[in-house]
Write a structure and sequence with these properties.
The protein is of the alpha/beta class and 335 residues long. The chain contains 14 helices and nine strands. The protein is globular and about 45 Å long. The chain starts with a helix and ends with a helix. Bound molecules: iron/sulfur cluster (2 copies).
């Protein structure tokens, strides 16, 4: 467990304050999508299939800050599309850091070397590099040869420049326990990235490749096998132990979609960044108060049937952690 101590303390304090105030629904992370355009066209992507006029849209610095301030989340994950295409990305990051938000910039890393001089290392900032496996697997996943090498090169450049570097790996049906172990061992032991995020892929309705999404049973099976022998304790995974228990089927949870709300070029997405099931809300208040949250999650909504993604189930795990002294200690020590 490798969430930096500063971030752990800030998030713990934030959750404690929300509980003291009696607030029932509050965001842990804001998923901010300032554009949907990308310089790749991955087969499993549900974001880039919009018409050109939508892909050309950008949220301004002011739009982004207003969304962050309205919802108040302590952590902001900037995704898209490809955030580094956005001309004002350095200003957006800078303004968020000034407000002491923990910022993760999710990127495919193609433009990282060209733009890295526009960013500064900070305990409040980390690159989150998309890497779906080793060379052949990643290049297949992003549908372009040579992207794995570019991402690895960018990771080394960013680490040498003093930045914190996280990775984000999505697993599909082509993966098995061995491919999970191979890529996590490589990122953890050879590249020595600061932390690694993992997720089974969500079956986006608009993704061109509908054949290769993992179902619930297969997800549990491959993670149980990959984590066997205390393997998961040696990896610096950016997840609560309870979410990892959930992935390998030791526990099951309800989804908490309001824990990671998404603000995008259309407004506040309902119910989560994976799925757009109802009209977008104009404000965060409208999102929270006027969404029928009870209808979402596995067993409740057909589009949630196979979902075990971190954006719905990690918030449940984090909130359960904060209600148990035993689980809080386990999370703190990396159990
Ligand atoms: S890099 Fe990300 S946003 Fe771009 S096409 Fe691939 S999955 Fe979609
Ligand atoms: S289960 Fe939760 S996170 Fe997954 S698609 Fe449904 S609402 Fe979103």
């Amino acid at each position: 467990m490798s969430m930096p101590l500063l971030q752990k303390l800030a998030v713990g304090k934030y959750v404690f304050e929300k509980k003291v105030k009696g607030e029932k629904k509050y965001p842990l992370v804001l998923e901010l999508e300032p554009l949907l355009q990308c310089n790749l066209a991955c087969a499993g992507c549900g974001k880039i299939s919009h018409p050109d006029e939508i892909l050309r849209k950008r949220l301004s610095v002011e739009d982004c800050i207003a969304a962050v301030e309205e919802c108040g989340a302590p952590v902001v994950s900037i995704a898209g599309g490809e955030p580094l295409i956005h001309d004002q990305m350095p200003q957006i990051v800078d303004e968020l850091i000034k407000r002491k938000k923990f910022v993760f910039l999710c990127t495919n890393a193609i433009l990282l070397k060209k733009k890295i001089h526009l960013f500064k290392p900070s305990p409040y900032f980390a690159w989150m590099i998309h890497l779906d496996g080793m060379k052949e697997r990643h290049d297949e996943s992003v549908c372009r040869d040579g992207i794995f090498d570019k991402a690895i090169d960018a990771i080394k450049v960013a680490k040498d420049a003093g930045f914190r570097v996280f990775t984000n790996t999505t697993f599909f049906n082509q993966d098995d326990a061995q491919s999970i172990r191979t890529v996590l061992d490589y990122l953890n032991d050879e590249l020595k990235v600061d932390s690694m995020q993992i997720s089974p892929a969500y079956a986006y309705e608009k993704a061109p490749d509908q054949e290769n999404f993992l179902g619930v049973e297969r997800t549990r099976e491959i993670f149980r096998e990959a984590f066997a022998g205390d393997k998961r304790k040696k990896w610096r995974l950016n997840h609560s132990p309870l979410y990892l228990d959930f992935l390998e089927g030791k526990v099951d949870y309800e989804c908490t979609p309001w824990g990671i709300p998404c603000y995008t070029v259309f407004g506040w997405q309902r119910p989560c960044y994976l799925m757009s099931d109802a009209p977008y809300a104009k404000t965060y208040k409208e999102l929270i108060e006027e969404t029928d949250w009870e209808q979402y999650g596995r067993g409740k909504h057909p589009s949630c049937a196979n979902c075990m993604a971190h954006c719905g189930y990690e918030p449940t795990a984090v909130l359960k952690t904060t209600t148990s002294i035993k689980e809080s200690i386990r999370a703190a020590v990396g159990g």
